[in-house]
Specification:
Layout (H helix, E strand, L loop, with lengths): L14 H4 L18 E5 L7 H17 L4 E5 L12 E5 L2 H7 L6 H4 L6 H17 L2 E3 L3 E3 L11 E8 L4 E10 L2 H17 L11 H8 L6 E5 L7 H11 L3 E3 L2 H5 L6 H11 L12 H10 L1
Parallel strand pairs: 1-2, 1-4, 2-3, 6-8
Antiparallel strand pairs: 4-7, 5-9, 6-7
Helix pairs in contact: 5-6, 6-7, 8-10
Length: 297
Amino acid sequence: MDTSLTGSALWDKKRAFHDYTSVLALKADEWGVCQGFFALWPSDCVDRFEELDEKMRTLSAQMVAMNSSLTLFVTAVKQCEFPYPSIEVQVFNATELLVSMGFSEAFPIMDKWKKTRFTRISDILRIGLARKHGKSYLDTDVTFLLLQKRYYERAYAGAALWSNLKNAIEITNAAFCLPKAVLGDMISFQKTRVLRGSDAYFYTELGPSMFHNVLMNRHAVVLYSQNHPAQPSLDAIARDVHAYGHLQLHLTGHVRKGNTALSFGQIVNTIRRKCGLPQLAFLPPSAFAQKVIANFT
């Protein structure tokens, strides 16, 4: 699984494209901001189990390749069995976490949320979990192309390239590693916005928009480019990887719906093949997963 930077057409040879040399070297004080990885599923695992199991299987292959591990934080354990290497499921109490973050006074407002409630609460919880555990966060549909964990354990956030023609980018909260001081700023921002709001939030207000407000002009954080999240063409994604040197991808519902003949793992490996990268080695679905999936069908 050697996807080192040396000699890589994707990450080293920028001169061929843009006449400059790309340097991703890490300084000594940038190492070890985070230790290990985590994802969040703020419910039990009954809903969309088959899809979640496939993502865990794919994430397991990445963790093994990087000699690391991922903790999936859930609020209930029902059907949360993913016996793949380097994957751990851990239950957490969302209410206790929010109290420890200082959100108690915001509960009356949050209890009235209806639209995009799940997204807003997830945006808040991931920041609290990152601050508490000191791990690097990623959505379950994020995949790393550069399989070297040290690049994701430095202070970084992702930046999606929405439109190459218009240079539209969005700092995302789909994958990040941030120091506790920055995460504390983010918690303060989110809490203030909730206390001043009602149910009239725009979709990204407590997530990507919050990242823009807190990070820009304030904190030294590396931005890693990601794919256009609404572009389903795997050929187009691979071309952009070659052109821009994406280290990671966010394979959103738009991407997956545009490639329904492929499983999540197959989408990942198809892109890796088109980019000339080693294929991830997946284990077959666990016996538990096969039994659950069979019951569904």
